[in-house]
Write a structure and sequence with these properties.
The complex is a heterodimer. By secondary structure, chain A is α/β, with parallel strands linked by helices. Chain A has six helices and six strands; from the N terminus they run αβαβαβαβαββα. Chain A has one domain: Glutaredoxin. Helix content of chain A is 39%, strand content 20%. Chain A has a six-stranded mixed β-sheet with strand order 1-4-3-2-5-6, sandwiched between helices. Chain B has helices spanning 2-17, 173-180; strands at residues 45-48, 54-59, 65-70, 81-82, 99-102, 109-116, 123-130, 141-142, 152-159, 165-171, 189-196, 207-213, 220-223, 229-234, 244-248, 259-260, 277-280, 286-294, 297-305, 311-317, 323-331, 334-342, 347-354, 362-369, 377-381, 384-391, 394-401. The longest helix of chain B is centred in the N-terminal third of the chain and has 16 residues, at 2-17. Chain B is globular, with a radius of gyration of 22 Å. Classes of the chains: A alpha/beta, B mainly beta.
């Protein structure tokens, strides 16, 4: 039984139990091209949460957005981007983190953090959680800290 | 549909539970889109030894904890000397950096770092000590008495003028206890500390300096006129204002609230990852720099604080709207502030220098890189002030004063 199969089994169990999509099986690289690619490839409404391993406020935001997607039955994707651990550095710990189990994709900064932040939004100063709401045909909406109900509602409207 | 989902769940749950927990973790070498390279852990600590030699501590390319020394103020460095961490994997990223501190007479040297633990957001403060001027170091040991698997992070360490070793850290024991008691209204974390009068051989009990610190920002220390230390840290003022608090690092702080040192009134339920810096000022009081949002404008700001830590006059924004992770140090009337800023193409290393106690400053460009880089640091040897900046090309040192 290989590791991939075991991970798939664990993810299936967690996903089925929560009634949501399977947990991510891998940590993808968020590199210099990732942000453009993420925006371009977003086929559905997407919430991207930039987080850090010492961000005490991030788990609640991830949980809340996952709950919103599930309870409102949104056609939307939840993406977490970890800023202080590179892909390949500690993937097992990131994937095992219960706060990441409800996300559809898990990425991690690969490269110069300050440049990656600048690519996302030059005005972002590294505060986490930093949430970017993406919706087809609409400009990204950036939120520092927990998003307001109004911000979530606006994004959810685009995800129906 | 429901039955099929239940069947899938039961089968998968059986499959998962039949395996050892650690075996369920995917391999580090599992495929993925575009594997990234390991993070460059460039964060270093630096200090001058009483002998005048400059020391740095950080991680090398193999993620080993190493020290290097320079007898010519950073022009040439000794080969990296690994310190045995006995399996620890020190945090060395951004505001979590290894640190080194020398006893005033130089016999005792300590190296500290935060060791992340298995659960998210947890850590422990570890120390290696030397009683032969840094020729040899002990095995790492945990500094605090509290051994719960909770947050003990963002260590700050310094000897005071009398030779007492002070270690401070961000600690969530009170927040965890509050949660365990069914309450969820404890703001942030706490600042805890302890003291050692024998160079880190033994420590007093863990002492709380303050409740309600920020959970994710470094703590700044500076010498006080009485030979002790003072601390400045990002605080969470009710309900959620992330300003800064100041307190002496001594027993007089136990029953006193810390002094509010900044009034940005940045209301935020989030982690800035951006702590302050502090330096003693000639004639009393302190120089402080910090990052915050004030009236909607995010900036690193400078201000003078009184001897009690209260702000003196309006803070001044550094002349760089992209400035981040600034440090401050003074020597007599001279004051140096250094920082880095990203301009969209590369990162600049910049200094703001004053010859008159912070009344007037002049901007100086120090360097630039297109690659990864650490936050700039300041170090002092008597009246000489130097700044260090580690990039992927090495550690650069610039003399700022005189």
């Amino acid at each position: 039984m290989n590791a991939c199969f075991r991970s798939l089994a664990a993810a299936l169990a967690a996903g089925a139990a929560l009634g949501c999509e399977a947990a991510p099986l891998q940590v993808e690289a968020f590199d210099a091209q990732a942000w453009q690619a993420l925006q371009a490839s977003a086929r559905k409404a997407t919430a991207v949460v930039f987080t850090a391993t010492d961000c005490a406020y991030c788990p609640a935001v991830l949980q809340r957005l996952a709950d919103e997607i599930r309870q409102r039955k949104l056609d939307a994707e939840l993406v977490a981007v970890v800023m202080d651990v590179a892909p390949g550095q500690d993937d097992a710990r990131l994937l095992d983190d219960p706060h990441h189990r409800d996300v559809d994709r898990l990425l991690a900064f690969s490269g110069q953090g300050v440049a990656l932040r600048h690519a996302v939004n030059p005005a972002w100063r590294g505060v986490t959680p930093y949430v970017v709401f993406l919706a087809k045909g609409a400009a990204p909406k950036w939120v520092t800290g927990p998003p307001s109900p109004q911000a979530v509602n606006q994004w959810a409207a685009a995800a129906r | 549909m429901v039955k099929r989902g239940l069947a899938v769940f039961l089968f998968a749950a059986w499959l998962a539970s039949a395996l050892p927990a650690q075996a369920q973790a995917p391999s580090k070498h599992a495929g993925g889109h575009g594997r990234g390279r390991p993070a460059a852990s460039l964060a270093i600590g630096a200090a001058f030894a009483p002998s005048g030699e400059l020391w740095i501590v950080g991680l090398d390319a193999e993620q080993r904890l190493v020290v290097q020394t320079s007898a010519d103020d950073g022009k040439r460095w000794s080969p990296p000397r690994p310190l045995d961490t006995h399996g620890d994997t020190p945090a060395a990223d951004a505001e979590a950096r290894p640190k080194i501190a020398f006893h005033p007479q130089g016999r005792f040297v300590v190296v500290t770092y935060t060791q992340p633990l298995g659960r998210p957001y947890t850590g422990t403060i570890r120390m290696l000590r030397s009683d032969d001027g840094g020729r040899t170091f002990s095995a790492p040991f945990t500094v605090h008495r509290d051994r719960q698997t909770i947050t003990h992070r963002f260590d700050a360490v310094a000897f005071d003028a009398k030779g007492t070793l002070h270690t401070l850290w961000v600690d969530k024991r009170d927040a965890e206890a509050s949660l365990a008691g069914g309450r969820s209204d404890y703001r942030g974390a706490a600042i805890y500390r302890n003291e050692s009068t024998d160079g880190g051989l033994t420590f007093g009990r863990d002492l709380k300096l303050s409740d309600h610190s920020c959970e994710c920002c470094r703590i700044a220390l500076a010498p006080s006129p009485d030979g002790g230390l003072v601390a400045l840290w990002r605080h969470v003022y009710a309900p959620n204002q992330r300003d800064h608090a100041f307190a002496p690092v001594d027993t007089t702080s136990v029953d006193r609230d810390p002094v509010r040192a900044t009034f940005d009134r940045w209301a935020l339920d989030a982690c800035p990852h951006h702590g302050p810096a502090l330096a003693a000022a000639r004639g009393g009081g302190y120089h402080a720099v910090w990052f915050g949002e004030r009236d909607g404008v995010a900036a690193v700001r400078y201000a003078r604080l009184s001897a009690a830590g209260r702000p003196q006059g309006e803070p001044i924004a550094l002349p760089d709207s992209a400035a981040e992770h600034a440090d401050v140090l003074s020597a007599g009337p001279r004051v140096a502030v250094v920082w880095r800023s990203f301009d969209g193409q590369g990162t600049r290393w910049r200094a703001w220098l004053s010859q008159d106690g912070g009344l007037n400053f002049a901007l100086r460009e120090l360097g630039r890189t297109d690659g990864e880089n650490d936050h700039p640091r300041l170090v002092r040897r008597n009246q000489e002030v130097f700044t260090l900046w580690r990039t992927t090309k090495g550690v650069q040192v610039e003399r700022l004063f005189p």
